[in-house]
Amino acid sequence: MALTSILFVPQYWTPPSLFDLDQKIRVGIEDVLWAAAVGGIASVVAEILLKERLSALRKGVRKRHFAPLIVVVVVFIVLQLWHPGNTIYNTIIAFAIGAAVIAVLRSDLIPTMITGSLNFALLYFALFLIFLFLYPGFIQRYYNIPNLLGIYILGVPIEELLFAATGGRYGASPTSTCKAIAWSPPPLNETLIAT
Question: Torsions phi, psi of 11, nearest 5?
């Protein structure tokens, strides 16, 4: 999630950052800290909420699926070429379509995805509200207001909540989702070198 900052600076926002990293390389230390905190908390809460279900899912051997990742990347690139000025919306649409692909391939993950989406969006919203309480003029000062829809929920741009909900749905239950799309390690006996 932190690397998505590359896509959004300066089109969507121009946040301040330590050592002006967001201005120089478009990813700042703050992006990494925010992503790690929100993503880590959300994944742990999702695991707690769905503990029994996830434990049962992990016991079986699953076929690896790369389609969700490929679809997200392809849809995003096509949308970027078609509407290059709408990166945040292109990302939201790509994440939503990627989540739909996961739902088709792994219908057993639908409850996890819904829980993950709601969990991540609510957590993101709560943390954003705390941030706005501490820095009330942040949106007006650092966001590219003309590029936003102009819809705010308690001061939080709707784009932030849509990004959180679709990103949370696509990445819900990181262990189960990653197992569905990640490379599998070689069998243990092939990794040992005979001496």
Answer: -55, -45
**Where exactly are the structural domains of the chain?**
2-181
Cα-flanking dihedrals φ and ψ of residue 153, to 5°? Answer: -115, 110
SS3 60: coil
Question: How does pLDDT run across 137-187, given as a tens digit for each residue?
Answer: 999 999 999 989 999 999 999 999 999 888 876 555 444 444 543 333 334
Count Cβ neighbours within 10 Å for each residue of 76-112 and write b for 16 or more, e otherwise. beebbeeeeebbbbbbbbbbbbbbebbbebbeebeeb
Cβ atoms 165, 120 nearer than 8 A: yes
Specify the DSSP class assigned to residue 14.
Answer: -
